[in-house]
Specification:
By secondary structure, this protein is an all-alpha fold. The chain contains four helices and no strands. The model is unreliable at about 1-10 (pLDDT under 50).
């Protein structure tokens, strides 16, 4: 047995522990399992773990985006009704974005 490993430990378990990775077991229907394995065979992901990790990262990003947009909506609603015309609002937005209205 390698030094530093307890009886029954797999060498990958030691690597995961040192790299901050954890093992999670999930159950998938056959069609979902086949889909995940197909993504790895097509070369976009190294293995199913990489694919699932990518899905989780994208879900976190999407949820953060939704939260950020909801905050902007709430701020807009709380700010009340504007007295400016739509043309004034658009001109102000273009000026802040550095877009010349003649380019449109």
């Amino acid at each position: 047995m390698r030094p530093g490993l307890e009886a029954g430990c797999h060498p990958c378990d030691d690597l995961r522990r040192r790299s901050g990775m954890a093992t999670v077991t999930i159950s998938l229907s056959d069609p979902l399992k086949d889909w995940a394995e197909r993504q790895t065979r097509e070369g976009e992901f190294g293995d199913v773990s990489d694919y699932v990790g990518d899905l989780i990262r994208k879900d976190r990003e999407r949820r953060q985006w939704i939260e950020d947009v909801q905050k902007l909506i709430d701020e807009g609603l709380a700010s009340g009704v504007s007295t400016r015309t739509m043309d004034e609002i658009m001109a102000d937005a273009r000026a802040r974005a550095g877009v010349d209205s003649r380019e449109l």
